[in-house]
Design brief:
Chains A, B: Keywords: Lyase, Metal-binding. The structure is a homodimer. Chain A is of the alpha+beta class and about 140 residues long. The first copy, chain A, has one domain: 2,3-Dihydroxybiphenyl 1,2-Dioxygenase, domain 1, CATH 3.10.180. Chain A is built from three helices and eight strands, in the order βαββββαβββα. In chain A, β6 and β7 form a beta hairpin. The radius of gyration of chain A is 15 Å and the shape is globular. Chains A and B meet through β1, α1 and β5 of A and β1, α1 and β5 of B.
Chain lengths: ~140, ~140
């Protein structure tokens, strides 16, 4: 049901400087950068591991900060059908952060839950065209 | 110089239970599990992303705990020549956690440093046979 690991999220205080850091020192390429009222997000890809990305997160509203849970903040997983897996996980006792999935950038459905020690894990439903391409 | 992203490290308080959690709910397979006086470590692989793993870390000695830096604790990168990249990064102002690389499991050289916000990043020198296989 979990198709693959997709990204790890890292909290940063200065998006420009951190993008430059990951690009110049660690060989990443900025793929997309978006901002809403709460936060700014950038996804960086790496040629050495094409199916995995680093997400840099900068909280514009300190009250919404994830960083209390660590600077390397969460790991995200791609799933085919998020509603199906939420239903299955609920049967297993998993409590999700929100009642329903939210829409992330690119309109993908996403929801968070916790591992046994509180580590943040995220499910992301792949887009239909990704599913078709990868079938 | 950075070949690829290799793993993300997650702190856990009960290794048995967390391995079961990642295996049964998230589709991981335990690849290796080792213990020394300070900590127990398990690497879990996932069929969906063969070149990336999750490392579960359980501190046996609370004084050596990494968990103060977050439950999702660090991201690791594979490099060809760790001494060469340490030298290059030092010129760029990076301060490493230790003066010299340590030897991780499987005898691979490894060293840690921090991103701009203190996020923990780790370099791991690939073994010679890995380099030959992947050339």
């Amino acid at each position: 049901m979990i198709k693959r690991i997709e990204h790890v999220g890292i909290m940063v205080s200065n998006m420009d400087e951190s993008i430059t850091f990951y690009e110049t020192l660690l060989g990443f390429q900025l793929r997309v950068r978006v901002k809403n009222e709460e936060k700014e997000i950038a996804f960086l890809s790496h040629n050495g591991l094409p199916d995995f990305e680093i997400e840099l997160l900068h909280d514009l509203q300190p009250t919404t900060s994830y960083s209390a849970y660590g600077l390397v903040n969460h790991v995200a997983f791609i799933v085919h059908d998020i509603e199906e897996i939420i239903s299955y996980y609920k049967q297993k006792g998993i409590v999700f952060e929100t009642e329903k999935p939210k829409y992330g950038i690119n309109g993908r459905k996403t929801i968070r839950f916790r591992g046994l020690d509180g580590e943040i894990l995220q499910l992301v439903e792949e887009k239909k065209e990704e599913f078709i391409q990868n079938k």
